[in-house]
């Protein structure tokens, strides 16, 4: 089943026989909780791990849960315009982002935690790690932040020159892909080592994390194989001297590349 959204925030759901699901405008209106006149933007979508429920964030600050059969399950009232929603790997909780705030909800709509970030962060994307222990945030301050599920900041990845609008973990949780507004995609080790930088229109990882698809503005798609060990070796080769000798690097970060081969 394929679901598509247009700029008027109306949803059409297509089954495998390419027929519009329900073919019913009233259902579309109900599904979105808005008439065409309101034109509320859908800002983010996330399927539950079992693919039976999906969540979407709205421009009015609400988060809605619906079954794929078209039944409204729950509406949460978040903070301001919701920019991103993401189910946890076990499907029991949901993270949402709005302005400088990240909120964790139960599947039943109970607000469990609120994390207030520093002014100017403005979170554009929120993602759970595959093990559910950490959360990655893409921010307007040109950074990727890694938090634990209690809101403690574990790492900040710096290197983008414009605001970061998307972030994702690899399926094994060993590296992170981020994308910024000027079309730059960066690959990071989970410890924050910048492994590779690419210019691209859009980027997607295969489910096994071994193939990267890059879409460009000229209509071409490039497939690249990914080898994490090779990327780590290359990144640490670049950074080895800086990590060991720079006064700006914390003592703990000086050992990020320990045990990683750097031969070329």
Tell me about this structure.
- This protein is mainly beta and about 260 residues long.
- The protein has a domain at about 45-225: Methylamine Dehydrogenase, Chain H (7 Propeller), CATH 2.130.10.
- The protein contains two helices and 21 strands.
Summarize this structure briefly.
The chain is mainly β and 264 residues long. It has helices at 25-32, 228-245, and strands spanning 2-5, 11-14, 42-47, 53-58, 62-67, 72-77, 84-87, 93-98, 101-106, 111-116, 123-128, 134-139, 143-148, 153-158, 164-169, 175-180, 184-189, 194-199, 202-205, 211-215, 221-225.
**Fraction of helical residues:** under 10%
Low-confidence segments: 1-25, 32-38
Beta-strand fraction estimate = 35-45%
Specify the oligomeric state: single chain
Count of DSSP helices? 2
Assign the structural class, choosing from mainly alpha, mainly beta, alpha/beta, alpha+beta, or little secondary structure.
mainly beta
CATH topology of the domain at 43-225: Methylamine Dehydrogenase, Chain H
Q: What Rg, in angstroms, do the CA atoms define?
A: 20 Å
CATH superfamily of the domain at 43-225: YVTN repeat-like/Quinoprotein amine dehydrogenase
Question: At CATH's second level, what is the architecture of the domain at 43-225?
Answer: 7 Propeller
The biggest beta sheet reads:
4 strands, antiparallel
Key phrases:
264 residues, mainly beta, Methylamine Dehydrogenase, Chain H, 44% strand, globular, disordered N terminus
């Amino acid at each position: 089943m394929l679901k598509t959204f247009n700029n008027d925030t109306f949803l059409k759901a297509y089954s495998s026989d390419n027929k519009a699901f329900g073919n019913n405008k009233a259902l579309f209106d109900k599904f979105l909780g808005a008439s065409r006149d309101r034109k509320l933007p859908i800002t983010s979508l996330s399927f539950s791990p079992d693919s039976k429920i999906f969540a979407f964030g709205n421009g009015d600050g609400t988060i809605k849960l619906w079954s794929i059969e078209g039944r409204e399950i729950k509406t949460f009232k978040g903070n301001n315009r919701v920019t991103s929603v993401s189910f946890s790997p076990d499907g029991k909780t949901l993270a949402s982002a709005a302005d400088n705030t990240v909120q964790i909800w139960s599947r039943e709509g109970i607000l469990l935690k609120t994390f207030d970030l520093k002014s100017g962060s403005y979170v554009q994307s929120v993602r759970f790690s595959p093990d559910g222990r950490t959360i990655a945030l893409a921010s307007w301050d040109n950074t990727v932040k890694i938090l634990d599920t209690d809101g403690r900041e574990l790492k900040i990845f710096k290197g983008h020159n414009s605001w970061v609008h998307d972030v994702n973990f690899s399926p094994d949780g060993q590296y992170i892909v981020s994308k910024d507004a000027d079309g730059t995609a960066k690959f990071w080790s989970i410890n924050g080592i910048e492994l590779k930088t690419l210019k691209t229109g859009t980027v997607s990882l295969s489910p096994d994390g071994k193939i990267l698809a890059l879409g460009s503005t000229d209509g071409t798609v490039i497939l690249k194989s990914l080898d994490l060990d090779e990327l780590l070796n290359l990144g640490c080769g670049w950074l080895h001297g800086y990590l060991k000798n720079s006064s700006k690097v914390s003592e703990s970060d000086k050992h990020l590349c320990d045990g990683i081969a750097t031969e070329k």
